[in-house]
């Protein structure tokens, strides 16, 4: 046996093994065959067998390394997405009055806690269980598919952890739009319903093998502009509509009054946290340690940056000053919009998608407030509903074969993808508006959705929870 | 005895304090105040909605003085608080009926110090 050939083969195998850590699937299989063929052409039978064993071992090692990397990546991403909870909590607290800050913490704490249990018991099964009619899943409740016996069962734990933080994100988006006037117990009931049913059904349609994922040209919503954000945003719209505006928000002639948030640095901290956590949200949605996480992080970051710039310029021109809270909304608008297409568009397209979202969010916030007279203290409907819809449609325009394997209208793909995207946006809107309205009306006429006038004026911290959020501080409130 | 109450621009407080200290006047009370004069505030903008702020942040300065210090104190405040622009503030002078020092139970002129 030729020694140098042996050494060469060993080196080849090692490098295949190392390469296998990332993107093992395509490379190892064919690479191993080539290696065996290359060696078998010239070597004696005995050493061929040895080498073949060596090759198999290397392939196994590569597979194990890939598995480990997948586990680490999906869980790291899940933990990042969990960090969106304090992000939303800080944003909402910052943009509302000090007398309700504790209530806002409680809503954000409990929708995650209750949502986790509800998603464990029912939600996950409806989203990812065996498909029924393309509409919902029907098994896997209580994490029944998970076990410690083997790889598949073990993966279910990691996968559930990643999915539950998404469900809780959809739930918590609604909190901001309903801030400062919602009865706490009513909010708890809502939390159960969204994580148990409303969100998982949409999740099943698009991610769980349901009808939107089996269209001739399947809808593309990579990390959930529609699944997570539009669902949250449209439910926020239902909630704010059924609740009505905060006391003093609109004058007798319908003119909009400003109700100042009490802590801009806290709101900004929330948005920075969300931006940071969003890398887990988008890049983690590969659910495996693939090489595409670099591209996804780049598109995510660029869209957020462009969203901030777009919103700042728009509000600067419209209102003569670069308003901080609108610029913060711009960041989130860009992030929400790129979430659907983060793996399917070029960095340049990501900038366009984010920038347009930034412009859109300013017009949308002002339209919803001043024309529709729907009181949404943090802009959740505009950021998540409107920009989620825009981002989902934008995939149909900007998707490029080079990145995600499918082309949108601007890259020669015709209208097929755009149509699927539009179908998804519209059906999810209808689903959420119908269920959301029914849900909030049901709560309103049973346990009650809104606190009394007196309670609203005193603040929900004292009336709903019996505490003050800023004991020892002199708080000066006149509204 | 007189009580001087002055509403001043918050950013002038340091200068006024220093000028008073130079003249040996160092007893005073300072509180935050909200107020408006004849211009009725100004307009701000929050999330695209106009917001008229008619109560501005001011500082309220209280100094109790004996007759001999009255003119000096008022003059120093008039000088140090003045920038020549609107909102510079106002000084009110009130008759002061009595004054007690709690520790020693002294009253009147001695108590003011
Ligand atoms: N008549 C008043 N009674 C009580 N407080 C007053 C009165 N006038 C002024 N103040 C207090 O003094 C602060 C400063 O007043 P300001 O200097 O703006 O008075 P003005 O009459 O508007 O004069 P200018 O035209 O110079 O602004 C006010 O914000 C308010 O707190
Ligand atoms: Mg004035």
Describe this structure in words.
- The complex is a heterodimer of chains A (479) and B (113).
- Chain A has 2 domains: 60 residues, no CATH class; 382 residues, Orthogonal Bundle (Ammonium transporter fold), CATH 1.10.3430.10.
- Chain A has a two-stranded antiparallel ribbon with strand order 1-2.
- Chain A is 70% helix and 1% strand.
- The longest helix of chain A is centred in the first third of the chain and has 38 residues.
- By secondary structure, chain B is α+β, with helices and mostly antiparallel strands.
- Chain B has one domain: Alpha-Beta Plaits (2-Layer Sandwich).
- In chain B, 25% of the residues lie in helices and 36% in strands.
- In chain B, the strands form 2 sheets. Chain B has a 4-stranded antiparallel sheet with strand order 2-5-1-6. In chain B, strands 3-4 form a two-stranded antiparallel ribbon.
- In chain B, a hairpin with a 2-residue loop joins strand 3 and strand 4.
- In chain B, helix 1 packs antiparallel against helix 2.
- Chain B starts with a strand and ends with a helix.
- The interface between A and B is medium-sized, with 19 and 9 residues.
- The structure holds adenosine-5'-triphosphate (ATP) and magnesium ion (MG).
- Magnesium ion (MG) binds next to loops of chain B.
- Adenosine-5'-triphosphate binds next to strand 2, strand 5 and strand 6 of chain B.
Quote the average pLDDT of chain A: 92
Structural class estimated from helices and strands of chain B: alpha+beta
Give me the side-by-side strand order of the main sheet of chain B.
Answer: 2-5-1-6
Q: Which percent range describes the beta-strand content of chain B?
A: 35-45%
Strand content of chain A: under 5%
Total domain modules of chain B: 1
In CATH, the topology of the largest domain in chain A is named Ammonium transporter fold
What small molecules does this complex bind? adenosine-5'-triphosphate, magnesium ion
What count of domains describes the coordinates of chain A? 2
């Amino acid at each position: 046996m030729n020694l140098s050939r042996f050494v060469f083969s060993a080196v080849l195998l090692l490098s295949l093994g190392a390469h296998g850590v990332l993107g093992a699937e395509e490379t190892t299989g064919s690479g191993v065959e080539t290696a065996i063929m290359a060696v078998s052409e010239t070597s004696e039978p005995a050493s061929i067998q040895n080498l073949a064993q060596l090759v198999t071992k290397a392939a196994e090692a590569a597979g194990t390394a890939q598995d480990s990397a997948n586990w680490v990546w999906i869980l790291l991403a899940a933990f990042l997405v969990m960090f969106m909870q304090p992000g939303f909590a800080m944003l909402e607290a910052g943009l509302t009055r000090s007398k309700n800050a504790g209530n806002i913490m409680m809503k954000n704490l409990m929708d995650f806690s209750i949502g986790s249990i509800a998603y464990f018991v029912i939600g996950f099964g409806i989203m990812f269980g065996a498909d029924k009619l393309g509409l919902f899943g029907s098994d896997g409740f209580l994490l029944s598919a998970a076990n410690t016996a083997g790889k598949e069962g073990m993966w279910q734990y990691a996968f559930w952890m990643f999915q539950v933080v998404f469900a809780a994100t959809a739930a918590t988006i609604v909190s901001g739009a309903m801030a400062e006037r919602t009865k706490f117990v009513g909010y708890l009931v809502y939390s159960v319903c969204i994580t148990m049913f409303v969100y998982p059904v949409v999740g099943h349609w698009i991610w769980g093998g349901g009808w939107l994922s089996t269209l001739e040209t399947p809808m593309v919503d990579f990390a959930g502009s529609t699944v997570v954000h539009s669902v949250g945003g449209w439910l926020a719209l239902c909630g704010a509509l059924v609740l009505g505006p905060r006391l003093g928000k609109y004058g007798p002639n319908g003119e909009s009054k400003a109700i100042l948030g009490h802590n801009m640095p806290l709101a900004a901290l929330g948005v920075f946290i969300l931006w940071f956590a969003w890398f887990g949200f988008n890049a983690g949605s590969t659910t495996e340690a693939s090489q595409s996480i670099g591209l996804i992080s780049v598109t995510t970051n660029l869209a957020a940056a462009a969203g901030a710039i777009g919103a700042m310029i728009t509000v600067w021109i419209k209102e003569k000053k670069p308003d901080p809270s609108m610029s913060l909304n711009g960041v989130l608008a860009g992030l929400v919009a790129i979430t659907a297409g983060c793996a399917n568009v070029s960095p340049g397209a990501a900038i366009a998608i984010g920038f347009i979202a930034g412009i859109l969010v300013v017009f949308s916030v002002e339209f919803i407030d001043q024309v529709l007279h729907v009181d949404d203290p943090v802009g959740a409907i505009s950021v998540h509903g409107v920009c989620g819809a825009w981002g989902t449609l934008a995939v149909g325009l900007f998707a490029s074969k080079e990145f995600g394997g499918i082309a949108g209208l601007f890259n020669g793909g015709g209208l097929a993808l755009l149509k699927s995207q539009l179908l998804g946006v519209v059906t999810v809107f209808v689903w959420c508006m119908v269920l959301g309205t029914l849900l909030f009306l049901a709560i309103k006429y049973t346990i009650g959705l809104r606190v009394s006038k007196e309670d609203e004026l005193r603040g929900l911290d004292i009336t709903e929870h019996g505490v003050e959020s800023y004991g020892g501080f002199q708080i000066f409130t006149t509204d | 005895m007189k009580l001087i109450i002055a509403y001043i621009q918050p950013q002038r407080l340091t200068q006024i304090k220093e000028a008073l200290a130079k003249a040996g006047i160092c007893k005073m009370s300072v509180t935050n105040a909200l107020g408006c004069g004849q211009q009725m505030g100004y307009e701000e903008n929050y999330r695209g909605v106009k917001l008229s702020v008619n109560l501005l942040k001011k500082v309220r300065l209280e100094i109790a003085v004996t007759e001999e210090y009255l003119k000096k104190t008022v003059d120093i405040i008039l000088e140090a608080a003045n920038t020549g622009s609107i909102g510079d503030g106002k000084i009110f002078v009130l008759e002061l009926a009595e004054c007690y020092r709690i520790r020693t139970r002294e009253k009147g002129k001695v108590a003011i110090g």
